[in-house]
């Protein structure tokens, strides 16, 4: 297919662009296969380069022959284009519509994008499971790498390499896989160095209505318990939901068969309920009517902060079991690719200081989200504005980032990265020139040959020049476990994402610049003091 | 579960600010100079809402209630200025059976209640009740405020912070064109008994004119200047409502006076009158002789109603807010409960009103006249907030003190009545959190402009704590005339003496000087937050949100100071050798002496 076929009108002059907080720009609008470009063709003036894949919905309106296209982006921004000429406007609108809803992944921009920067370190190889395992081996020898899934036959949504108890051989893993939905047998997610406790994750057991059991499954997870110790199974569904799942072949671990485990049910919402929550929240946030008296009610009615609270509470529970109770934990919900990953990854952040660094956080995303098979492409296909029928969309990852932001707000000195870092991850998960968030699991990514054909987001972000933007000047490594408050009064709406297009953040940014400046000035002084001290020492030895 | 990591044993925090470093320790309780223990009750149980009952001893002085637990590990104290108490009630009777059901319930003005259980036998409850009532409500019991007994001394004299003439001079008054004059006409409080002695009025209005205008304004509070724009000479003028009444009375003098104000900066368009009230209330006020400037009489003026509700509505709103935050915090429907208190909505209206005033004066280059009914509640909120937005001086610590002294204290905001200092009549309908609401608005502004204010959150909280404490003379009484009669400046210490002697604690490390711009905060509900660190501060489960950043920043500033010192030392020991290149060459970004504009933000 040629993109040219979809572009009915490639160029229109005298188009006026209106964006939040920026002066209106008049210029020429161009459509390319992947971008909507507006340029005033003057030097030094800012241009708009908008990825078609960032477009969530468009609306058109006419006053006489002057058409206005309103473009609503997946990053929640809304822009307006005034286009003279009805035909041009209709053509542009239908072209954008076609280009922003391409079905084939391989037609997406990452497959065409060529980096304009030098790749210092290839992000595709920055985070390898073997490396993680080497780090783990320093602390324990009870785990091993298993290649049982190297052809993706045991579990299509797992990576080729997983960490499992040493005592469990691959044959057992295969059997256990048949007892867990989608073949997602329990694997190691986190090892708590402080006390040797672990967190595992999986999908639900396929017990069904007649209470099937699988001795190998029991053996596998029991292998992670120390003699005489009990563990916790955290089911991210309510007991009711878990019971209902049995009629569809799913279910939960029966006490009788797992006597060493205590099961706790927590209710985290998923799928369309989250998507609807996002839609309501964004609708309320963008409400321009002056009658904002009902803002707090609307915010509450969106339930977004309730979801944040539920996820954080469950993550705190998992972390508490491990750190305070000294018990190992198995986390799962239904499929084990949404709420399960929210809980395990947030528990990481609470427990492990390493995950609060830039590199550690990227590794966490890579391991607990990408490798773990969170279906990014499905979940992030549409954002809050799209009118088209929802399929598998859900802001699972955005909720995770929101939870991270809440913790970061409560512990402003404990994270190496700043808020901007989280926002950039949100943006790239929904639309990007990089291949990182394409595909729904490792299997699909291999088939798409992403490593060969696209650039990794990490290759770009981890260059020193880019990294600079993401450092938190107040960061001071904090080796402690950090317990966030989950009281509703402690949770706030993430302005940086949900209100950033309706209030300028200029003044808040200025404050951060000021902090950065002072920190840097200090470093300068420190360096000078050190230099002088050295010189002094040299002089003294000369004497 | 999953709450704050290390809840501190409840108590102290803000109340501790009261305890001066110089405080002496007598009988192991901190005392201010001039403070003495009036009674002591043993075997009292403090029923803490958060950490359960604690057995201990209660001391009551002429200034505070001090509770000390018997248990030493962890030991727990409670230190509360008596001024903060609004009500003391007996709970349970001789026949009460339940555990700890017999004792006292103390309602405080700062969003908390305290409960003590006492033994039924003996007279300990009676004695504690009596001494509390006696010293917490000195006015009702014929005593004087502790402020008159406070003998603490400070290195600074806070009474010198606000000198009206100097403040007007700072504003550039009298102005070059001589449109405004400074007058002593009210030096004996004869023109208006609730105004300060020194006023700024239009130069072309004679003393007789002033008297006539005052006669047409409620309580004689005639329009006088609050602030003048340094560039466009537009002014903010404050007053009370005109005495229009049902019959639609007019005053040619008042009309002419307003016209002079309109013309004073050469503007010919209409004078904007901001009436803080909802229009229905303004109309209703005609029935009691008040009203607003009608179109017919004031053809060259335009009245804008700002829809801010009266003191009773605000009091009720705060009461509802307290219900959802103390002792337990509403969990399940927090946001809608918060909304139903309307507290943030009232904040929004006050801020939005002030923004309109500031915008009119700054962008519209035209003068604004502000009044409500009597011109001492909503008017003070609006003028002071508009001044904060317009004039960066008021965003400094000194300037903010001046602002409070000027717009609130000197212009007769009835602190004594609104707060009920030393008065046991807790249900008095004249009490209202108007000043608290103003400070809340300021806090909202500091949140939106983190670099624009020289002071931090603790500064605001300290001011609010001493709004109630009666330790200082600053907020006592209702107007300058009364304060002058009571010789407040001579007989009491100013809050600013205390605050300015330990200013380090109150500095906002983010502050960047030289921001002369006008601040327009966003008054949308979406951008207003509940001030959790104030309203929910007694709940130990709430993390103080801003603290770590401030803490870290201060550490960094200290480190910087140390480094600078070290650098200097090294350079001194370095110079005689004469071999080494000058240090500043090694790093082009900064010279050894901090001269960059940013270095001025140092503590």
UniProtKB/TrEMBL annotation, chain A:
GO biological process: negative regulation of autophagy; phosphatidylinositol dephosphorylation
Domain called Myotubularin phosphatase: residue spans: 123-498
InterPro entries per the UniProt record, alphabetical: Myotubularin (IPR030564), Myotubularin-like_Pase_dom (IPR010569), PH-GRAM_MTMR6-9 (IPR048994), PH-like_dom_sf (IPR011993), Prot-tyrosine_phosphatase-like (IPR029021)
Record keywords, A-Z: Acetylation, Cell membrane, Cell projection, Coiled coil, Cytoplasm, Endoplasmic reticulum, Membrane
GO cellular component terms, semicolon-separated: cytosol; endoplasmic reticulum; perinuclear region of cytoplasm; ruffle membrane
Database matches in Gene3D superfamilies: Pleckstrin-homology domain (PH domain)/Phosphotyrosine-binding domain (PTB)
Membrane-topology annotation of the record: Peripheral membrane protein
SUPFAM superfamilies associated with the record: (Phosphotyrosine protein) phosphatases II (SSF52799), PH domain-like (SSF50729)
Subcellular localization(s) per the UniProt record: Cell projection, Ruffle membrane; Cytoplasm, Perinuclear region; Endoplasmic reticulum
Pfam families according to UniProt: Myotub-related (PF06602), PH-GRAM_MTMR6-like (PF21098)
Family to which this protein belongs: Belongs to the protein-tyrosine phosphatase family. Non-receptor class myotubularin subfamily.
Protein name (Swiss-Prot/TrEMBL): Myotubularin-related protein 9
Taxonomic source organism: Chiloscyllium punctatum
Automatic annotation (TrEMBL), chain B:
Binding-site list for substrate: 310-311, 372-378
EC top class named in words: hydrolase
Enzyme Commission designation: 3.1.3.95
Gene Ontology cellular-component annotations: filopodium; late endosome; plasma membrane; ruffle; sarcomere
Record field: transmembrane: none
One GO MF term attached to the UniProt entry: phosphatidylinositol-3-phosphate phosphatase activity
Enzyme active site: 372
Biased composition (Low complexity): 581-603
Location in the cell: Cell membrane; Cell projection, Filopodium; Cell projection, Ruffle; Cytoplasm, Myofibril, Sarcomere
SUPFAM superfamilies reported in the protein's UniProt record: (Phosphotyrosine protein) phosphatases II, PH domain-like
UniProt-recorded name of the protein: Myotubularin
Organism, as annotated: Chiloscyllium punctatum
């Amino acid at each position: 297919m040629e993109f040219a076929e979809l572009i009915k009108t490639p160029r229109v002059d005298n188009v006026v662009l209106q964006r939040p907080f920026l002066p209106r720009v008049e210029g020429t609008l161009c459509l390319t296969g992947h971008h909507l470009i507006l340029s005033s063709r003057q030097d030094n003036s800012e241009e708009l380069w908008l990825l078609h894949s960032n477009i969530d919905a468009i609306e058109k309106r006419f006053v006489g022959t002057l058409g206005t296209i309103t473009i609503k982006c997946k990053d929640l921004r809304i822009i307006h284009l005034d286009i003279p000429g009805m035909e041009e406007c209709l053509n542009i609108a239908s072209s954008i519509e076609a280009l922003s809803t391409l079905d084939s992944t391989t037609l997406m921009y990452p497959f065409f994008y060529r980096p304009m920067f030098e790749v210092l370190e290839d992000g595709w190889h920055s985070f390898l499971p073997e490396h993680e395992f080497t780090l783990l081996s320093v602390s324990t020898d009870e785990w091993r790498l298993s290649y049982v899934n190297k052809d993706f036959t045991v579990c299509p949504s797992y990576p080729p390499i997983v960490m499992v108890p040493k005592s469990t051989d691959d044959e057992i893993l295969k059997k256990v896989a048949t007892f867990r939905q989608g073949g997602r047998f329990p694997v190691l997610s986190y090892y708590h160095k402080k006390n040797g406790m672990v967190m595992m994750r999986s999908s639900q057991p396929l017990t069904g209505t007649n209470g099937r059991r699988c001795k190998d499954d029991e053996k596998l997870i029991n292998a992670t318990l120390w003699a005489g110790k009990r563990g916790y199974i955290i089911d991210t569904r309510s007991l009711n939901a878990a019971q209902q799942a049995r009629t569809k072949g799913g279910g939960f671990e029966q006490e009788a068969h797992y006597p060493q485990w205590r099961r706790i049910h927590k209710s985290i919402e998923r799928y369309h309920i989250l998507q609807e929550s996002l839609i309501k929240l964004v609708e309320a946030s963008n409400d321009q009517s002056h009658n904002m008296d009902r803002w707090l009610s609307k915010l509450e009615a969106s339930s977004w902060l309730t979801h944040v609270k539920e996820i954080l509470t469950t993550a705190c529970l998992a972390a508490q079991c491990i750190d305070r109770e000294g018990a190992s934990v198995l986390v799962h919900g239904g499929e084990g690719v949404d709420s399960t990953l929210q809980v395990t990854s947030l528990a990481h952040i609470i427990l492990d200081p390493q995950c609060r660094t830039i590199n550690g956080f990227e590794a966490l995303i890579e391991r607990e989200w990408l490798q773990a098979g969170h279906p990014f492409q499905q979940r992030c296909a549409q954002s809050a504005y799209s009118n088209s029928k929802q399929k598998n969309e859900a802001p699972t990852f955005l909720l995770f980032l929101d939870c991270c932001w809440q913790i970061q707000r409560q512990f402003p000195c404990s994270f190496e990265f700043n808020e901007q870092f989280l926002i950039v991850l949100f943006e790239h998960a929904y639309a990007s020139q990089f291949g990182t968030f394409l595909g729904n699991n490792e299997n699909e990514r291999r088939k798409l040959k992403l490593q060969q054909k696209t650039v990794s987001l990490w290759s770009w972000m981890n260059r020193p020049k880019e990294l600079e933007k993401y450092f938190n000047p107040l960061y001071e490594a904090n080796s402690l476990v950090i317990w966030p408050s989950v009281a509703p009064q402690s949770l706030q709406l993430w302005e940086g994402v949900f209100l950033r297009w309706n209030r300028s953040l200029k003044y808040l940014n200025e404050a951060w610049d000021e902090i950065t400046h002072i920190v840097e000035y200090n470093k300068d002084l420190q360096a000078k003091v050190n230099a002088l001290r050295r010189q002094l020492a040299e002089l003294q030895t000369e004497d | 579960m999953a709450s704050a990591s290390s809840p501190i044993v409840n108590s102290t925090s803000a109340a501790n600010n009261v305890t001066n470093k110089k405080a002496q320790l007598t009988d192991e309780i901190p005392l201010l100079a001039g403070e003495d223990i009036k009674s002591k009750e043993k075997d009292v149980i403090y029923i803490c809402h958060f950490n359960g009952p604690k057995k201990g001893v209660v001391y009551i002085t002429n200034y505070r209630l001090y509770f000390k637990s018997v248990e030493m590990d962890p030991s727990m104290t409670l230190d509360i200025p008596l001024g903060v108490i609004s009500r003391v009630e007996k709970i349970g009777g001789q026949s009460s059976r339940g555990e700890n059901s017999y004792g006292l319930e103390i309602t405080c003005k700062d969003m908390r209640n305290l409960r003590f259980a006492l033994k039924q036998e003996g007279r300990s409850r009676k004695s504690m009740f009596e001494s509390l009532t006696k010293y917490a409500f000195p006015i009702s019991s014929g005593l004087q405020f502790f402020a008159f007994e406070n003998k603490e001394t400070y290195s600074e004299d806070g009474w010198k912070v606000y000198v009206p003439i100097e403040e007007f001079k700072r504003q550039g008054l009298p102005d070059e064109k001589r449109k405004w004059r400074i007058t002593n006409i009210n030096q004996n409080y004869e023109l208006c008994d609730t105004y300060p002695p020194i006023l700024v009025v239009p130069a072309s209005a004679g003393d007789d004119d002033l008297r006539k205008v005052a006669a047409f304004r409620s309580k004689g509070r005639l329009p006088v200047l609050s602030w003048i724009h340094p560039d466009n000479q537009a002014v903010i003028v404050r007053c009370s409502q005109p005495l229009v009444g049902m019959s639609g009375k007019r005053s040619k003098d008042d009309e002419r006076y307003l016209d002079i104000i309109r013309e004073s900066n050469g503007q010919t368009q209409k004078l904007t009158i901001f009436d803080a009230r909802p229009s229905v209330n303004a109309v209703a006020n005609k029935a009691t002789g008040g009203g607003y400037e009608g179109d017919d009489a004031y053809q060259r003026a335009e009245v804008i109603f700002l829809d801010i509700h009266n003191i009773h509505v605000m009091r009720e709103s705060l009461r509802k807010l307290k219900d959802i935050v103390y002792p337990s915090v509403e969990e399940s429907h927090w946001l809608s409960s918060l909304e139903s208190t309307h507290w943030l909505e009232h904040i929004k209206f006050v801020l939005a009103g002030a923004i309109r005033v500031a915008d009119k004066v700054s962008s519209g280059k035209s003068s604004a006249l502000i009044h409500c009914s009597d011109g001492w509640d909503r008017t003070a909120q609006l003028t002071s907030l508009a001044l904060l937005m317009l004039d960066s001086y008021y965003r400094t610590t000194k300037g903010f003190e001046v602002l409070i002294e000027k717009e609130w204290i000197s212009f007769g905001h009835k602190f004594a009545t609104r707060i009920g200092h030393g008065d046991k009549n807790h249900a008095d309908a004249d009490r209202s959190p108007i000043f608290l609401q103003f400070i809340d608005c300021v806090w909202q502004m500091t949140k939106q402009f983190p670099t624009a204010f020289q002071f931090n959150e603790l500064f605001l909280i300290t001011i609010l704590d001493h709004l109630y404490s009666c330790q200082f003379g600053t907020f006592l009484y209702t107007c300058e005339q009364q304060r002058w009669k009571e010789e407040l400046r001579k007989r009491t210490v100013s809050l600013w003496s205390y605050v300015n002697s330990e200013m380090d604690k109150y500095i906002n490390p983010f502050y960047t000087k030289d921001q002369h711009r006008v601040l327009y905060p966003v008054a949308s509900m979406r951008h207003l937050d509940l001030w959790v660190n104030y309203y929910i501060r007694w709940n130990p489960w709430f993390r103080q949100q801003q603290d770590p950043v401030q803490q870290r920043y201060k550490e960094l500033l200290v480190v910087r100071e140390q480094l600078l010192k070290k650098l200097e030392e090294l350079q001194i020991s370095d110079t005689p050798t004469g071999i080494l290149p000058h240090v500043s060459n090694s790093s082009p970004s900064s010279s050894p002496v901090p001269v960059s504009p940013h270095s001025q933000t140092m503590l």
